[in-house]
Design goal:
212 residues, alpha+beta, FMN (chains A, B), 7-stranded antiparallel β-sheet, 13 strands, flavoprotein (chains A, B), Flavin oxidoreductase (chains A, B), Pnp Oxidase, Chain A, FMN binding (chains A, B), homodimer
């Protein structure tokens, strides 16, 4: 099948949303946890979190202001803190359900049965059922001019994960933590490791890494 | 295991890179194809492509100016066009090898054995071995102030994919196209579908979607 600008433009809106959302490749599955100044908690699945840098440890996230995560977005702007919690296989249905358009006074924790957990003195709620939990401080928020989406950037300031999934070189085996991947708007996937490959050099071929 | 800002800062640089790069979740695996004005082709694996919007169809990508994709970055700025080609299971090793620091006058197509393919009148090379191939026009490029990375945004203007992987509602089954996912800096994964889930509504529970 071939699509050009014209045939893409002519697609029915929902068809187009499914098609285009499938194209970037596999996406991360995170639950965005926030709380407002009055203690009202919010939880929202996001598939747009991406790595921005390791030093400092920065993550980007794209939010549409009129999308379901808008309450979470308002909360993180208000408090300056949020959590990102990996979605694992056991909580896929509950995580997906957080994308329903609940009212702001409804907590998706309560509505979906996921458990808010406050760890150390971090100001936003983590998801107890998640194995890999990140606490972030808001660093910047900017509008992407071309389509008026918002780019939220946060710095990792707290990380909780099981000892067993950290390999000797620092690599975290998120597959071993049952983290899932997303495609399109609604498809969830477990994974199966092919290999870690050695650092690529021009004069040799990559070899499978043995890290045990 | 718990890390706070101080213990994250104290990590050895390479360990830290592996750790932090593992945390965003599963990442997309794309080959970025470009050519400069003199016909010199370049190909580079990127794990930072993300969905930005469906209408218009926009994709973002993070590039470090001193990273391996720098030649590709220079080319796409020069010509205004680039391709993104899904990495599938059959070409994982070759795709990974494009991350070696070849000289600018070396083509990663030649060096890795992947095949440059020009389709219709699109100005940048696609990867013949890839099942899902996107041609993009550069829309904007901006520096992310907090760590001086570059955010490249492109609009999809050409899409090639097998008829068989497009479902009736527009969803593209990239798993059926053998597209792989990446974690960390060097780990490649195939996937296994759990389910597509129905559109979430506050008063009902998500159900598996049947799309056949």
């Amino acid at each position: 099948m071939f699509f050009n600008t014209q045939s893409l433009n002519e697609l029915e809106q929902r068809y187009r949303a499914h098609l285009i959302n499938s194209l970037s490749g596999f996406k991360s599955a995170n639950l965005l946890g926030t709380v407002d100044k009055h203690g009202q908690e919010n939880l929202s699945i996001v598939s747009s979190v991406f790595h921005l840098g390791a030093n400092p440890a920065l993550f980007g996230m794209i939010i549409r202001p009129h999308s379901v995560p808008r309450h979470s977005f308002e909360n993180l702007l208000e408090t300056g803190f949020y959590t990102l919690n990996h979605v694992n296989e056991d909580i896929v249905t509950q995580a997906h359900q957080t994308s329903a358009r609940y009212e702001k006074e409804q907590s998706e924790f309560t509505e979906t049965g996921l458990t808010a957990e406050y760890l150390n003195d971090f100001k936003a709620p983590f998801v107890k059922e998640s194995e890999i939990k990140m606490g972030l401080k808001l660093v910047s928020e900017q509008v992407i001019e071309v389509n008026q989406t918002h780019l939220v950037i946060g710095e990792l300031i707290a990380l909780h994960c099981p000892d067993s999934v950290i390999q000797p070189d620092g690599f975290i085996d998120i597959e071993a933590a049952n983290t899932v991947a997303i495609t399109g708007l609604d498809s969830y996937h477990t994974t199966c490791k092919i290999n870690r490959l050695s650092y690529a050099k021009p004069d040799s071929k990559p070899k499978p890494l043995v890290t045990l």
